[in-house]
Amino acid sequence: MRGWDGFVDLVLGGRCAGCARPGVTLCGRCRRLLTGPTPFRAWPDPPPPGLAPPTAAAPYAGELRNLIVAHKEHARYGLARPLGGLLTDAVRVALEGRGAAWLCPVPSLRATVRQRGHDPLRRITDSAVRSLRRQGIHVRRADALQVVGRPDDQAGLSAERRTANLEGAFRLRSRWAETLSGQPVLLVDDVITTGSTLREACRALESGGIEVLGCALLAATARRHPSGS
Predict the structure, then answer these.
(1) Quick one: which H or E segment has residue 213?
(2) Model confidence over 88-142: pLDDT tens digits?
(3) Cα–Cα distance, 83 to 67 (Å, whole number)
(4) Global pTM exceeds 0.70
(5) Other beta carbons less than 10 A from residue 78's beta carbon
(6) Domain ranges for the chain
(7) What topology does CATH give the domain 46-221?
């Protein structure tokens, strides 16, 4: 993966994916930005009913937004580890002192994964799992959800239309129902906006008798404000 990032740097003239300064994929300044934020409770306004408490590592803005997009849409694979470190912080806070949990990434359509050439959220989640286990927190990834049907693109939709668009969008994979029963489970996603996607993912898990402790996110959109509640 480092070789691929080196090739991208060569082709694109070697610029930081966060701030576009000449150099490597992630400059020292942007790397430090990923280790500085304090995770916060990121309730959307209004919060959709049934959403488990969301914890975001940082606001979705500026260099962080650029890094998430570069990893997700432009295959800058080398960003998975530093973004995984950011997710690690959100998971640790969301766990509230618990020493173990299953991390369940919100799935993407298979066609979207094929188009991108990778599954960015799973890649970041795996990086966070490795980091957390090194810290003595026993976490594992649970690919417990699958996408049902083909929801429309959420971009530009109102909160109400997002909710309607995603109704019934996820289903619990039957083989995971027994494994996760009675176990601590956190949903994982990259960005929270209205909370519609995460709420529907919570519903799908809870319909199978699985309690969701909370949601861990890389970032929350700028119009969502950090809160201590």
Answers:
(1) strand 212-221
(2) 999 999 999 999 999 999 999 888 888 999 999 999 999 999 999 999 999 999 9
(3) 8
(4) yes
(5) 21
(6) 46-221
(7) Rossmann fold (3.40.50)
